[in-house]
Amino acid sequence: RAAGCGPAAIRINTGSTAAYTTADGRQFSADQYYGNVTGGTGTLASTVDILNTTDDVLYRSERSAATISYSIPVSSGTMNVVLHFAETYFGAPGKVAGGTGKRMFNVDIEGSRKLTNYDIYARAGGAVRPVLESFAVTVTDGILNINFTSGSANMPKISAIEVLPQTAQANAAPVLAVIGSKTATVGQPLSFTAAATDPDQGQSKTFALVNAPSGAAINASTGVFSWTPATAGTFTFTVKVTDNGSPALSDEETITVTVGNATTTNVAPVLAAIGNKTVTVGQALSFTATATDADAGQSKTFSLVNAPSGAVINVTTGVFTWTPTAAGSFTFAVKVTDNGSPALSDDETIIVTVNNVTAPTSVTLSPLADSYVRNGSYAGTNYGSATNMVVKSGSGDGITRSAYLKFSLSSLSQVSSAKLRIYANNTENTTSINLSAYGVDNDSWTEGGINLNNAPASSSTVLGSVGVNNTAKYYEIDVTAYVQAQLAADKVVSIAVKNPSNQNKNVNINSKENASNKPQLLIVTNGPVTSGARTSAEELFSSESKVEFEKSTIYPNPVQKHFTVEFSKQHSKDVSLEMISQLGRTYKINLPEHSRSGSKAEVNISDLSLTGGIYMLRIQSASLTEVIKVFVVD
Predict the structure, then answer these.
(1) How many CB atoms lie within 10 A of CB 583?
(2) Cis peptide leading into 500, omega within 30 of 0?
(3) First to last CA, the chain
(4) Would you call 280 exposed, middle or buried from its count of C-beta atoms within 10 A (0-12, 13-18, 19+)?
(5) Which residue range or ranges hold the Malectin domain (predicted)?
(6) 175-260, what's its fold?
(7) Are 10-165 and 361-525 equal in CATH topology?
(8) What is the pTM of this model?
(9) Do 451 and 434 contact (CB within 8 A), yes or no?
(10) Other CB atoms closer than 10 Å to residue 389's CB: what's the count?
C-alpha cells in the first residue's frame, strides 16, 4: 500500500480522466485509487443541466459497475468522507424513464455498512440533481476503503469523493438558560431545574451554586435545585455551569429568592367515600376509612357518631369493625378530624343493613325418569315400567345390570350438598354389596326407550359408593360435586348406579313407579327454590308422605321450650334431630352425647326462636327415619 498522505483534503472526480476545480475553489483530481471494477465510466452530454448546482461538470461524469472499490491512502485517524451522487441515467434527458426503485445499491466504508439499497433518485427527489452523503470514519491502517456493491436493482454509481480531515476547534463556553428570580414560603420546598447548552458536542456540564443559602443544593449532573427555607427574607446567590473543555469554561446567573412566611389558614381533611354496607347477623363487618389533607404534616383522627353498640373505629388507621347481633338498619357517621388550628373535620353518614341469617332449605327431588339395563340377550329390553331396578355384576348372559336415574335441577339456583337416596336391599344374602354412582353427561335417554344397546356411557370416575346389605332401607351416596357441575351446565342430572366389584348378587332398588320409598335426590340449598321442587317441609306435610309416628314418642306436645323424646329401639347407633317448619326452614337440634336407640333425651328448643305453629320433628339414624308432628306454642 502507498504511504499515508498528509492532513490535506483528498478530492476525486470519479469516472473522469480530468481534474476539476469547483466554483468555490475546491480541487478534484482525476479518478484514482479505484480497483475491483467490473464495469466502466460514463459521461453525460455537456448540454444537460445538473439542477441545484453550478458544478455541473463534476456530476456529469460517473464511475458505475456491479462492484466498485476505492483504497485511498490517508493518515490514520478520524476524518469525514463525503460521497457525491447524481442520477444521470434513469430520468435524465435522452436516457430511459426515471423513477424510484430503479437503481438501489449498498456502500461500505472501512468494513461498516453505511448505505443499504440506496436510491439516488428517491433521495435527491428526481434525476440530474446532486445529493451528498457525509460520514465520520476512523482509519487505523493508513488506507481508507470504500466499497460499492449492487443491491436490489441495477448497479452502483459515484460522481465524486471527498476525504476531509477533522480539525480541532477552540473550546466554546456553555450557555446557561435563563432561570429568573423566585418566590418561596417558609417550610415549603422550592425546586427548579437549571438547563444549559454547549456547542461542543460530547462535553459534559457541571452545575454548582455560589454563595447559596444554608440547605440549598443543586444536582451537579441534572441541574435540579432544591431548598426548603427555614426563615423569611431575601436571598441572592449564583447558579453556575462549567464544561470539561480545555480550558474549562463556564456561564452563570445571579438570582434572588424572596421567602415569605407561611399562611396559617387551615384546610379541612377530605374523607374518602365509604358507601352503605350490608351484612348478616353474626358476620363481622370491616372496612378502612381513609382521608387526605392539603396541610402537610397534620395528623388525622377517625371517630364514629351515633354508632351502634359494639362498633369501633381505630382512631389512627381508620379500621372499622363490628359484628352485629340483631337485624335492622343502622345509621351513623364516620368522621375524620385534623389537628390544625382551628381543628376541622369531614364526615359521611352511612347506613348498614343487617339481615337475619338465611337458613338452608332442604329440597327433595323425585326422578324425571329411572330404569335399568341388562346385558346379553336382554340388551335390547326396556325396563322403564318396572317398580324395581336391579343392579348386579358378574359373568354370564343377562347377569350384569345397571340402574339409570335422571333428575331436573330447574327449580334451583344454588346447591350446598346433594345426596342420592335409594331404597334398596340385597335380595340374595346378608353380604354388603358395593353400589357406586357414576355421572352420565348425555341426558337424552328416556325411561321408556333406554336399554343396554342405546344407554349413554357413564363416566369412569366414581362419584360415591355405599354398601347395601339385606336390610331394606334408604341408602345415601354423596354426589354434591357432580350435581353442582350439572347445575352450572344444563340443570339436568343423570346418574348410573353399578356394582363395580362383580359380587354377582341382586340388589333391588325401588323405582319411581313403586308405591312407596321412591328414589330421591336430597338437596340442601341456600338459594331460592322455584316451583317444581318439593321442599322437605312439603314432603313431610304432604298427605302422600308415608311416615310412622308410633315408633318414637315425645312429650309434652304441644311444646313450649322443652320436651322429652324417647327413641325407638328400631334405631341403630347415634340419632339426630331436626325441626322443619311449614315453609321448609330446617332447624338442627343439638342432642346430648350418646343419644341412641331406646334412650331418652331432654331437648331444649328455646334458642331456636320458633314462632307458634305446626312443625315436623325428623328423627334419623342409619337404619330408620321417623317424622312426628309437633305443636309449638309461644
Answers:
(1) 11
(2) no
(3) 121
(4) middle
(5) 10-161
(6) Immunoglobulin-like (2.60.40)
(7) yes
(8) 0.39
(9) no
(10) 28
* Continuous H helices in 474-622: 480-488, 536-541
Nearest to 333 by CA among 257, 406, 276, 401: 276
Question: What are the pLDDT digits (tens) for 525-584?
Answer: 877 776 555 544 444 454 333 433 347 888 888 888 889 998 888 777 778 888 888 766
User: How is domain 361-525 classified at the architecture level of CATH?
Assistant: Sandwich (2.60)
What is the distance between the alpha carbons of residues 535 and 347, in angstroms, rounded to a whole number? 48
Q: Where do the domains of the chain lie?
A: 10-165, 175-260, 270-355, 361-525, 547-632
Give the torsion through C-alpha atoms of 122, 123, 124, 126, to 10 deg.
Answer: 0
H-only helix segments in 409-462: none
Chain mean pLDDT for the chain? 89
Size of the chain in residues: 634
CATH class of domain segment(s) 547-632: mainly beta
Q: Is the pLDDT of residue 74 over 90?
A: yes
Task: State how far the Cα of 123 lies from the Cα of 133, in Å rounded to an integer.
Answer: 10
Single-letter amino acid code for the residue at 132: L
| Check whether domain 10-165 has CATH 2.60.120.430, yes or no | yes
Per-residue pLDDT tens digits for 3-60: 334 458 999 999 899 999 999 999 999 999 998 776 567 677 777 899 999 999 999 9
